[in-house]
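Throughout our pipeline, every protein is held as a single compact record rather than as scattered files. Nothing more is needed to write down the fold, since each code stands for a local backbone conformation. For reference, a complete record is included directly beneath this paragraph.
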Amino acid sequence: MNESILRAHLSRALDWADAHVDFDTAVENMPADLRGSKPDGAAHTPWELLEHLRIAQEDILDFCRNPEYWERNWPDEYWPPSPEPPDDGAWARSADAFRRDRESLKRLTLDPEIELFAPIPHGTGQTYLRELLLIIDHNSYHVGQLVALRIQLGCWPPK
């Protein structure tokens, strides 16, 4: 496969909605009073899922770019400390930060100076391709959880 075609597919996959709901739709118009709600049987609140998506994506981006990368403690540093947002603006700030990091990952993906199959110099054998596939898979999994949770909470589809 032509490497530029692979790069284009990976870049699109970071935010596509070809086979499922995309991140932007999943977080759109989430009622403020339900962001910290956990229905019976649910593992997380919408806020916990949004923040986990943001934190994990930020972590992978940092790993790809930062030779001084320091691995976070699992699971404590990959989930928010509270099931509820700390203030009214936290939801929008978290979603905006996720989008900014997603755009940075897209730029990294399309950068011809980055060898997708090369090990990340400060890693332990991980390649850029592996990290991109990991975040694509991770994000789609948790976006699906968020949609399922919104259905349980009665706030799907976004209005």
User: Anything to note?
Assistant: The helical segments are 3-13, 23-27, 46-65, 90-110, 128-153.
